[in-house]
Write a structure and sequence with these properties.
Layout: E1 5-15, E2 20-25, H1 30-33, E3 39-43, E4 54-62, E5 65-70, E6 88-92, E7 113-116, E8 119-130, E9 133-140, E10 143-148, E11 154-158, E12 163-166
Length: 175
């Protein structure tokens, strides 16, 4: 079953006194996603809505994050002490661009098979966000291996087959 919401941001903290929130983008297209009028909802770990809708009033890039202002929120007290720390915000799939050939939704990556040529490297357990990048945790023979989730290491994504093709640097799996 296709998710009805996709994670697009991770709430980091309130910012300033006027009700803005600092969020970390989880989308490749923050300019298209964080626009006035876009509805975001808090999500649980399975991608289901867990709270009230937030409608973006204004948005702007801020260092490696984004500052979002929401309709009806005019001071930071809406976010203070409300359990917002590290909340995932999602947008409805009907308003987001679907993946094209060679792309996958982030929630589809865990469980995907990682291959190099004809060799099965392992199965993706999770995707970790690290500064400046993302890393696949690939399970092989009961051991976790970290594989950078970026080109030129990742050479192809096959969404239909849930398959990730890689070209690993020598010795990566021995670390």
């Amino acid at each position: 079953m296709e998710a009805s919401y996709l994670a697009v941001a991770k709430f980091r903290k309130p910012h300033g006194l006027k009700g803005e929130a600092l969020v970390y983008p989880l989308t490749d297209e923050p300019d298209e996603v964080f626009v006035a009028g876009r509805v975001l909802v808090p999500l649980d770990d399975e991608g289901h809505a867990t709270g009230s809708e937030l409608v973006i009033h204004h948005a702007r890039a801020y260092q490696r994050s984004w500052l979002l202002g929401f309709e009806g929120i005019t001071d930071r007290s809406a976010f203070d002490g409300g359990g917002w720390s590290a909340v995932t915000l999602g947008a409805s799939t009907d308003v987001l661009r679907p993946p094209t050939d060679g792309e996958m939704y982030l929630h589809e990556v865990p469980g995907s098979t990682v291959v190099e040529g004809d060799d099965v490297i392992g199965i993706v357990k999770e995707v970790l966000g690290v500064p400046g990048s993302q890393v696949l945790v690939v399970v092989r023979d009961g051991k976790d291996h970290l594989v950078p989730f970026r080109k030129p290491i990742v050479t192809r994504l096959d969404r239909a087959e849930r398959r990730i093709e890689v070209k690993l640097p020598p010795g990566l799996l021995e670390i």
